[in-house]
């Protein structure tokens, strides 16, 4: 009889152990230094962005995958970046050409200024000579040595010479303004 009580007790013990494993009461042995706990792990979301805009050419990681600092995560297509670089290079070349043109324009204006000043000096000298000739002609006209037509011609030549000087002065001033404008373009 004793034997039958032990066997019944053994069956009860085995049944209880099976029940404990099936409902999760029994835990496997954890290695030393580790703990088994229940809970929830939360992480901070990380936003990944590129320094330049463009189309995504390749993605090297999957969502949720762990990455190391400095790892290559994705690649952006180089076509758009190359196009922007080409556009910037073209704009630079155009600016350099405009600068060279403005410099050439400024030099041409300086050359023109020299010619305009020479023309002004020549016109002023002609005006002075014609003014002296006109004063002598007026003396001779008063002495009745010259005819009215001759004094009128001398006075007209004097007026034309004065107008030539004013035109030459305007040309010098306009050329100086052109130089200032060209220099401002070069400086900008």
Describe the 3D structure.
With 188 residues, the protein is mainly α. Helix content is 67%, strand content 4%. It has a two-stranded antiparallel sheet. α2 (78-142) runs antiparallel to α3 (148-187). The longest helix has 65 residues, at 78-142. The protein is rod-shaped and about 145 Å long. The N and C termini lie far apart (115 Å).
Output the keywords.
single chain, 188 residues, mainly alpha, 3 helices, disordered N terminus
What is this structure's SSE topology?
Layout: H1 2-22, E1 56-59, E2 74-76, H2 78-142, H3 148-187
Antiparallel strand pairs: 1-2
Helix pairs in contact: 2-3
Q: Separation of termini?
A: 115 Å
Which percent range describes the beta-strand content? under 5%
Contiguous uncertain segments of 5+ residues: 1-6
Q: How large, in whole angstroms, is the Cα Rg?
A: 52 Å
Short description:
Helices cover 67% and strands 4% of the residues. It contains 3 helices and 2 strands. Helix 2 runs antiparallel to helix 3 (148-187).
